[in-house]
């Protein structure tokens, strides 16, 4: 079967999250400044739906909330009143059916207020604001205490949402790793999860830097001599090994410096991203040298 990409996957992530009565009630009590929100309890909520959402957000679904406007980096200026969407409504203003939307604009919330709310929905809002990968990890650490107190079901919902958001930022080669990191932990192991995610995001950065070095080498091939090409390839691989595996890779770096075949070095660079351990990196480099000897 063809691989189908989820349609409006981010919206579906929120709909799956808010299909939980408890999470929906948290949304109302934390972010809706109306007296009636305080009077609602889980027993009074009735969920109306025509279909279901899988955790990969790939199925069709009925809206849990009529409209949830989120994540815009600019100030939202859309009409919040239904009648304002109708042409010529001012002529019949007193006689037009009307209701108002409740706006949830994630980027308008203060991060510290979201930390203090210390619940599932506020934690997700804090992570869904515009930020880079480094800040995302920092916010996860600030939320660790709140995440530990989530129930298993809440943590499962949080993990499904977080995995979806992170995988959208990552290359295909790292997405399965994120699934394993998030799927194998319990709420009380959240620090372990955060550390492993930080390592994965760092690995993404390392790969991007190495690709940049490779691109620079490729652009210089037209004017560079053969020796210069080999040295640049050696340098790119050694820098990646040092960033990825630290001082433990020094011996392997010396092996790379002894490889003078540009073809072998190119083959190593193409495969090296798949190495999760130093042993796997050593095997890839050894295999590249073995092909050269054949």
Quick recap of the structure?
The protein has helices at 9-18, 21-31, 35-39, 111-117, 120-128, 133-148, 152-169, 172-183, 190-220, 226-245, 250-257, 262-272, 278-293. It has 294 residues and is mainly alpha-helical.
On the 0-100 scale, what is the average pLDDT?
76
Unreliable residue stretches = 1-7, 60-72
Helix-residue proportion: 55-70%
Strand-pairing-aware structural class: mainly alpha
Per DSSP, the total helix count is: 13
Give structural notes.
With 294 residues, the protein is mainly α. The chain is elongated and about 80 Å long. The protein has two domains: 194 residues, no CATH class; 73 residues, no CATH class. It contains 13 helices and no strands. The longest helix is centred in the last third of the chain and has 31 residues.
Task: Name a few traits of the molecule.
294 residues, mainly alpha, 59% helix, elongated, Transposase
């Amino acid at each position: 079967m063809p691989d189908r990409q989820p349609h409006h996957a981010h919206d579906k992530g929120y709909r799956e999250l808010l299909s939980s009565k408890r999470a929906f009630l948290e949304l109302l009590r934390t972010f809706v400044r109306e007296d009636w929100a305080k009077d609602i309890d889980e027993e009074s909520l009735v969920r109306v739906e025509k279909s279901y959402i899988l955790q990969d957000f790939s199925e069709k679904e009925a809206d849990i909330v009529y409209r949830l406007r989120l994540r815009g980096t600019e100030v939202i200026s859309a009409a919040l009143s239904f009648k304002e969407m109708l042409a010529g409504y001012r002529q019949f203003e007193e006689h037009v059916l009307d209701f108002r939307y409740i706006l949830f604009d994630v980027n308008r919330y203060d991060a510290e207020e979201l930390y203090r709310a210390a619940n599932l929905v506020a934690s997700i809002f804090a992570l869904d604001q515009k930020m880079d990968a480094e800040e995302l990890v920092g916010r996860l650490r600030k939320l660790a205490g709140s995440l530990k107190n989530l129930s298993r079901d809440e943590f499962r919902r949080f993990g499904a949402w977080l995995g979806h958001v992170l995988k959208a930022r990552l290359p295909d080669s790292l997405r399965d790793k994120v699934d394993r990191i998030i799927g194998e932990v319990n709420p009380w192991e959240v620090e372990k999860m955060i550390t492993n995610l930080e390592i994965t995001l760092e690995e993404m950065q390392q790969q991007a830097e190495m690709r940049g070095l490779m691109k620079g080498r490729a652009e210089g091939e037209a004017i560079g001599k053969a020796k210069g090409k080999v040295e640049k390839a050696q340098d790119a691989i050694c820098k990646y090994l040092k960033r990825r595996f630290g001082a433990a890779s020094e011996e392997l770096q010396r092996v790379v410096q002894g490889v003078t075949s540009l073809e072998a070095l190119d083959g190593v660079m193409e495969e090296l991203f798949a190495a999760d351990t130093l042993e796997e990196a050593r095997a890839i480099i050894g295999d590249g040298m073995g092909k050269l000897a054949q």
